[in-house]
Amino acid sequence: MNEKITQEIHYIYVIDPLIRSFLGHYFNYANSIFHAAVKAGLDFRLLANAECDPGISEELPTRFIFSKDEAPRLLGIRPPKLAGLHRPIKRLNEWIKACRELDRPDGMVFVDNCVAIELLLFAIALFFEKKVLLPVFIVMMRIYYYNPSTNRWKKETIILKLALYLLRKTSNSKRIHLVSDSELLASRFGRLTKMPIHTVPIPHTHIGLNESNKKYSTRLRFAYLGHGDYYKGITFLADAIHELNAAGYLNRMEFFIQCYQSRTHDARIDKALIGLRQLNAKSIEVVEEPLDVNNYNLQMIRADVLLFPYLIDRGESTSGPFTEALALSKPVIVSAQTWASQQLEKFDGGGVICQSGSSTSLVQAMMEMSNNYAAIVKKAEKARLNWAAFHNADNFINTLTSVSVSENDGSIQKREMEFEEPGRKGRP
Question: CA angle, corner 390, sides to 389 and 396, nearest 5?
Fold first, then answer.
């Protein structure tokens, strides 16, 4: 790490309101930053919600700045209207308290995974904070409210635009920077703000696995990992497997499908998973529960191919499993017009691109993968070097540190000149 860059930076704090457990990639993301920060000689602390699994504070230095999301009771009753009003007021007070306690100017605070209302409350707290000696605040722009398939912004965008407006006004007197880990999202968010949005690498690319392309089965093993989400294409994958079965090709392949739904179940997903089980095929394993870190890593390493048949509605978002797959030189199948397909082409990775929302196109992609697997693996192994050289925790810390000492003034003036473009398609 460049000593000139780090001379003003001695710590990094990560604020993530969404970390609740070890499931998913929220913890992996923070954990990767923690280890890279320690390696770089930076103090680290996770500022999180009191609803976190207690085990997280045993793994990472953690301070709880947000209380549990509970509304007050009146004579033992929690009135719905009072509860709805209480939550943002309570959270705003917690953001104000957090900003007042972050009084060391020799560090940076990375604000991650804030939904629109959360980001607005943070912006309000920072806007009215009178203290001058504050750290650099770097805000990750990842959660968005745009649908590429309909070319429309959702109503929450109004809140998001207000938050970004306050952050821009505050950046005149305080050090605030915006970043995104997707070039597509950086461009999309650029339509909502005059502040520059820097692109940063994704840190959690190393999960302690080596020799990942060793074959564990005579059949090609496809894996679909992650949270159950219709827009991640699970129903089209199910349809594709039925088509493979009807064509007599299912005996050449095996599938591991993890699709857990943490909240309200989607009837379309439930129907798709029931249909897969009714095939009674020994080559198909369906898991509807979350996987712990060890089991997730095991399924990642055992897979010959990772599947990402996302719909374009989710196309601009990044993917943790995809990031890890390329870092492990795993061949992938991805949908066209998505962040994953853009990255696959940019790094010349080993994979096949299918049409979004088409089970027939997905079948063709799996057949192509099956027929050309050896050549695709070699391409994936070659691409891994450049991918892992950019997307890793050390480079994440370096990039964040460079952003933290950069000047906003000239960039903001340039963005203001570029911002007003009449007739811009998809403008909120």
Answer: 115
